[in-house]
DNA sequence: GTCTATAGATCGATAGAC
DNA sequence: GTCTATCGATCTATAGAC
């Protein structure tokens, strides 16, 4: 077993999953060390700020991921209807039909919200704005597009909560089908 | 200041608020002791099972609270339309327009979900079933009533997430107005 | 860059005095 | 029924060897 020279960026997906599964307080450094296969010393080498810096890095990567695959297409794809359809597909996969928690949403409900407030607000603000843009381009009246966009982004978050509580991934998928329907032009 | 003889039930609202604000892991016994004004010894006198038993008790009280004020009226009030309207009003107050977290929803997104799974499932199942009943009685076709009910209950949870992340209580209220509109008979 | 060892604080939980 | 004192475990974070 050769000594691995870890890259900071390679740790981010593992860190993200650990925070998703255990939350900010629940994800202890020992747990993170086990999950990443690194010692605490190594973790502090990459993230001198400790857990807080890890979460910041994870949130930045999540935002970049959504920016590339969801937000940017919604904003400027030549075919806004296709971008919206792609969004629902991407999100269903990403959240594993509600089996996987949205880290941004979960942090928003925790007391970590105050610490990471700016990143959390940015993520949802970007999403709502990008979707509003696509809804407008697809023919929705500009007066109602922001409200509809908030309904949909909020609806997705609620679908995660409900599907996880009821332990019914089908519920997540059905709600998303319904939201997709509402996103169609009138 | 006379020595207070605490009643177990009197502690529940304080415990609920503490868990709402700090989550299951974040609400330490020291924090709970400070919030309730009791020592750890007293807390273990009332809740021999520690934090887990406190959360169970809080969840039971929350369910009873909603049963009396929301679920029962939805199920059997003579005026189902009024019960639905009352539900939206009660919920808006209860969640402080999204400033206050739904403890059941927050626990569903945390790793405490597995420990308290049954209580979390019960709460949302009762809500969805009761609202389905009211929607049917108000004239919605039975085939679509369950789906609409899930949309609404999930939508409320999502509204809490989004409003907290964006720090915009108005967003919570606007989403609830929209959901209330969809609950009207066709 | 990674590790072990460990500091210092805090955790959940218990014991015993009153 | 409430308190203080305290246990052992675990926590975040650091130090220093390699």
From TrEMBL, chains A, B:
Signal peptide: none annotated. Residues 28-47 bind DNA. Residues 5-65 form the HTH tetR-type domain. One of its GO terms (molecular function) is DNA binding. InterPro entries: Homeodomain-like_sf, HTH_TetR, Tet_transcr_reg_TetR-rel_C_sf, YxaF_TetR_C. SUPFAM superfamilies: Homeodomain-like (SSF46689), Tetracyclin repressor-like, C-terminal domain (SSF48498). It holds the Pfam family TetR_N. Keywords: DNA-binding, Transcription, Transcription regulation. PANTHER family: HTH-TYPE TRANSCRIPTIONAL REGULATOR YJDC, TRANSCRIPTIONAL REGULATORY PROTEIN. This is Transcriptional regulator, TetR family. It comes from Methylorubrum salsuginis.
């Amino acid at each position: 077993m050769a000594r691995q020279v870890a890259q900071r960026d390679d740790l981010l997906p593992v860190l993200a999953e650990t925070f998703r599964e255990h939350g900010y307080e629940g994800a202890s450094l020992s747990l993170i060390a086990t999950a990443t296969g690194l010692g605490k010393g190594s973790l502090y080498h990459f993230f001198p700020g400790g857990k807080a810096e890890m979460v910041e890095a994870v949130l930045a990567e999540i935002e970049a991921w959504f920016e590339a695959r969801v937000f940017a297409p919604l904003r400027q794809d030549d075919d806004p209807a296709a971008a919206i359809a792609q969004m629902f597909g991407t999100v269903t996969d990403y959240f594993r039909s509600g089996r996987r928690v949205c880290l941004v949403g979960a942090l928003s409900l925790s007391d970590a919200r105050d610490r990471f407030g700016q990143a959390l607000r940015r993520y949802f603000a970007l999403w709502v704005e990008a979707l509003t843009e696509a809804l407008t381009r697809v023919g929705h009246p500009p007066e109602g597009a922001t409200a509809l966009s908030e309904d949909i982004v909020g609806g997705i978050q609620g679908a995660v909560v409900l599907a996880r509580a009821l332990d019914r991934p089908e519920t997540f998928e059905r709600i998303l089908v319904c939201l997709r329907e509402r996103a169609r032009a009138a």
